Amino acid sequence: MTTVTQMKCACDSCLCIVSLESAVMKDEKPYCSQACADGHPDGAGCGHKGCTCHS
Question: Which Gene3D superfamilies match (predicted)?
Answer without folding.
Answer: 2.30.170.10
